[in-house]
Fold these 2 entries.
Entry 1:
Amino acid sequence: MRGRVFIIGLGLIGGSLALSIKKLHQDSVLVGYDINDEQARLGKMLGVVDETVSSIKEGAETADLILIAAPVNETGRILASLPKMNLKNNVIISDAGSTKKEIVKMAAGLKESGNVFIGGHPMAGSHKSGVQAAKAILFENAFYLLTPEAHIPEEAIATLQRWLAGTNARFITVTPDEHDHLTGVISHFPHIIAASLVHQAEKSSESQKLIPRLAAGGFRDITRIASSSPEMWRDILIHNNDVLLSLLEDWQVEMERVKSLLQMADKDDIFSYFLGAKQFRDELPQKQKGAIPAFYDLFVDVPDYPGVISEITGYLAKEKISITNISIRETREEINGVLVISFQTEEDRDRAMDCIQNHTNFDQTIGM
Ligand SMILES: NC(=O)c1ccc[n+]([C@@H]2O[C@H](COP(=O)([O-])OP(=O)(O)OC[C@H]3O[C@@H](n4cnc5c(N)ncnc54)[C@H](O)[C@@H]3O)[C@@H](O)[C@H]2O)c1
Ligand SMILES: O=C(O)C(=O)C[C@]1(C(=O)O)C=C[C@@H](O)C=C1
């Protein structure tokens, strides 16, 4: 497709949307604006956008597609300011915010001015922020929730989906209320729990100095999302306040249930509690991104000698297997760390496993 695409908020999500649009629609012109000049400058320098502008008005008035990827509170403010501008007649406006009820309300002015606003939420992301973390494949296989109101023509929804086809995401239409309930359960509330687990560990660490050093493995996995942007999560909690308060009550009931399991100390009941959770989680689709992202991790039990990491990455490079991340996971002191190599696809991970097996006798296992 041709036209000018204006991205407001050039961070992780805005940048990733820009890259995925440009990948498919090479004749389009990607224009970026960020309230933080440094992010805008970086976005241009990294080639995430073709041009930057110095105000929302400047970018919006010539745009064919406007995508707002700022924190949700700011998104509301920006939406309220757009009707005062001289927008193109057939411009399509959408956003990427993690909440929808409040945002759709804030877009009421656009309905009155006869503009098309379609709420959007690509359901994949990361705890990392900023345009430097943006990537074109971020939304591959993820769900992309849309919340068009009844007056929005089907043709406009189809046009937006054509613009966003390079995300390779799967579009689903829901109402703003449904959206906020669904994401409350599988995204927003888990972020509260992750943050609260970290607070609990921090409190205990005041008297138990070993806690930070031991907080590895499972604790790191379950609390990864507590490293997300506090600004983004502050705004999400304020927008989805009612749903989250009700989920918190359900959670308190659930914790009472756990308390009574512990008090009764009945082996069978405790076993069933974990078994039920394991069964439901194991049946969740694994290959799609979303609340539980697809991991293509390979764990390699490496002996401790200098150069072992470059040796392994050298084997992989020779076979042109690209890796997305590499880290050492140390769960116990005085025991060799495990090398964790992450891949973008399952195929890359399987090829890497064969490659390492051909060159070494290191034990390997895949992350589930
Ligand atoms: N991070 C995720 O996992 C994820 C996933 C899906 C959707 N979202 C949603 O996408 C939006 C962006 O999140 P992100 O992760 O890209 O955050 P980010 O911090 O990486 O980027 C947000 C950018 O918006 C800019 N910004 C803030 N106020 C602005 C304003 N008034 N005008 C222009 N720019 C402004 C910031 O400077 C920043 O560069 C949020 O609404 C978030 O809820 C996030
Ligand atoms: O993978 C992560 O770090 C995320 O938290 C991504 C995540 C999620 O909860 O699934 C976070 C918020 C977004 O609205 C959508 C995706």
Note: Residues 315 and 358 are 10 Å apart (CA to CA).
Entry 2:
Amino acid sequence: MPTRLPPSPTLDPVDRALVWLRRDLRADDHAALHRALRQARQVWCVFILDTTILTGLPQADRRVEFIWHALHELDRRLRALGGGLIVRQGDPREEIPRLAKALHVQAVHVARDHEPAAIARDAKVRGALADAGISFLSWKDQTIFETDEVLTAAGTPFSVFTPYRNAWLKKLAEGGGFYLKAYPVERHARHLAPVPTDFDLGIPTLEALGFAPTDMAARLHPGASGGEHLLLDFLERIDRYDSSRDFPAIKGPSYLSVHLRFGTVSIRQLARLAHERVTAGSRGAEVWLSELIWRDFYFQILHHHPRVVGHCFKPEYDAIRWEHGKAADALFEAWCAGQTGYPIVDAAMRQLAQTGYMHNRLRMIAASFLTKHLGLDWRRGEAWFALHLNDFDLAANNGGWQWAASTGCDAQPYFRIFNPMTQSRKFDAEGRFIRRYVPELAGLDDDAIHAPWQARPMERLAAGVELGRTYPQPVVDHDEARARTLARFEAVKKVAARR
Ligand SMILES: Cc1cc2nc3c(=O)[nH]c(=O)nc-3n(C[C@H](O)[C@H](O)[C@H](O)COP(=O)(O)OP(=O)(O)OC[C@H]3O[C@@H](n4cnc5c(N)ncnc54)[C@H](O)[C@@H]3O)c2cc1C
């Protein structure tokens, strides 16, 4: 029997509202902006350059630059519609209530953010606004289904992906298109109010914000126009996604993750387009839609189990004794620098450092290597990715790390230990990706490039490769590392079994 759809909320009309944009930097198919425009006669939009976040970032950060460009484009788009973007710098817990009062709004609308720090921040803002008699309205915008919209038949959260995906698809079908519907803006844009002169201070330069320019613009097309451009390009390839997505040397995936992260593309638009292709029989689109469902899956895991931030999803694995001390620190540094002596791992880590992106197959290999070859705590790798990934997202990053470390929900079992050479030969057979990022090995043939220490000395000499000088010896032995990892996990399992 079809489930009943949630009723569309009817809001008391108000004269003035403010939309506080955060991870939703676009002016179309926008849940919060749509709702505000339908509720209020005059609507303003604001973005706060949150100093509590910005002060903790490195001076050159591609993500800050991405946001900065996205704000300029968003401001232009909003102005073309009759509004504009108010930009403030400071702590949103103070800035939002101050601005809301100054503009005399009766409501502040936001797209819901599910990260624990954001939830705490929003609770403070909500409280301060309530004190001033202003309502705080939050809307689902980041995901297709959120919090407890998709639950098991027993009403509990899912912790295994496949049944979650089945339930997700069932709910989508029952909605008959409802959940993928766009939230139009242009149609209601007459309610966008121009930025009052006193509030129209422009967008501070990157330098004024304390940031140095990066190579971001040379690598990424930021803003909603960048998202549109990538989407059009990907739609040409989506039907081949299932067969091309695992090979880092070829253009297989969509590269849309950074746009999903900052909301410069709408998840509803992506899921709708994918779903249409699935209906037309595209296997590629079906697999890609599943990836979008993984994204929702990890969001709901974070919602139901916020302890995954800092802790293993499976509590017994909190007792794992990861390597620590000077030798462990040296291994971590080698991993970060792409100097482990395992070419596929090094190529992956250098891709991350040079571009801020890492292919999904390589994220799995690099994370598995850190935890299962180097025996290092997944939290160290998670933090490194958080600092360097353009698309860093707490839910997906934590989920991915705990999956690779076998400590997470629906993770790969601890005894499944990726062999980096096998992975390399399978997914970069001709070493094209390795040659791009580890050019010092380019002269080796297509077999030797996956494990240079196994090549004949003459072969290495001819390729100009001298282990320990031009390229590192492997920092660990694969078989020994594998044995240590099995022992590490089995020790914990034995203790858990005795309890
Ligand atoms: C250790 C590890 C860390 C990761 N950290 C992040 C992260 O911080 N941010 C992030 O967005 N993704 C993360 N992922 C998931 C995945 O690697 C990236 O989403 C993907 O590589 C982004 O490239 P794309 O946009 O071309 O992906 P596509 O293959 O085109 O997939 C489309 C979209 O689906 C979503 N998606 C795909 N795979 C996953 C997944 N496994 N989990 C959740 N969502 C997924 C992403 O939003 C992605 O943009 C991580 C995976 C691992 C194994």
Note: Residues 245, 253-257, 260, 291-292, 294-295, 298, 360, 363-364, 367, 385, 389, 391-393, 396-397, 399-401, 404 surround flavin-adenine dinucleotide (CB under 6 Å).
